[in-house]
Amino acid sequence: MPLKIISTFFISLLIFLTSGCAHYPKTDFTWQSNLEKEHPLVGHIIDTQNMDSISDTELVNNLSKTKYLLIGEKHDNPDHHHLQNWLMHQLLPKNKYQVTFEMMSYEQQTQLDKLSSSSSTSEIVSTADFKNSGWDQELYLPLLQTALKKGAHVSGGNIPKQQIMALYSSNPAILEPAKRFSTMNVLNETQMLSLNDYIYEQHCELMPRSQVGPMSKIQIAKDASLAYSMTSATAPKRMLITGNFHANKTLGVPTHLSKLDKNNESIVIQILEVDQSKQQLEEYEQSIFDQADYIWFTPRWTNRDYCEDLRVQSNQL
User: Fold this and answer.
1) Could you tell me the pTM of the whole model?
2) 34-46, pLDDT tens digit by residue?
3) Which of 16, 133, 210, 268 could form a disulfide with 292 if both were Cys (CB 3.0 to 4.6 A apart)?
4) What CATH code would you report for 37-163+223-298?
């Protein structure tokens, strides 16, 4: 397969606890996901420092104390977006927030600055450019609407597509503006090895190892850009809506935040689907809990084999 096709192909894909009821959000909410709804960890919020299950009220109280809050998701699970929306409703009215979205790039900021609580749905949709971005409007429009209606300032933190393609081509000229990418070297050698392994595994070990380096560079550039958008805000509180790997304490955006703002720590909550093969908390790898301060478990949205999809598409090219 020609390198150009390979490049385009991979870039585009880019305890059981004590007995009792799980801590569901205090809303009239039922899980939209149908897989593993009866899993014993579904609905539980885990404080990873002491491995206890806490209530949603305790969670909101703890999250409200931080300057930088990162809320991770699995992009295609609607329950994850519901929980993000619920958290916004609890947190945004209490403080002035800037909400940064991975789903929009920093180049869209001039237009995003024009949005307000009175913006119409059509104005928000047009500004977010869901049609061309590839992000699901049905999942992300409600989050944007909530952020705006609750008085938050909305920002885009991702890097634009042309910058991604240039990074993949190892063109250093695209690392501008320099201040946005000042933390590109934040990861040490051990962390870089972990990131490279993760990138390779997430691409189902189908991509050539020689392409892992550029893909890792793209990941780091996104993290640097998202962190910069958060630290450059004027609002006293900053929230990030993003995928779980960007909201990763050991390799993601928090590593950049700690370098950009040494006086303030971030809090990470990851919303994760349960694993059918792991019914008790102690069966999960420790690395899962190292990545976040809190984990909120949900049912699974799909059992789709993404790697098999990649293999089929790869064979068709």
Assistant:
1) 0.89
2) 999 999 999 999 9
3) 268
4) 3.40.50.11550
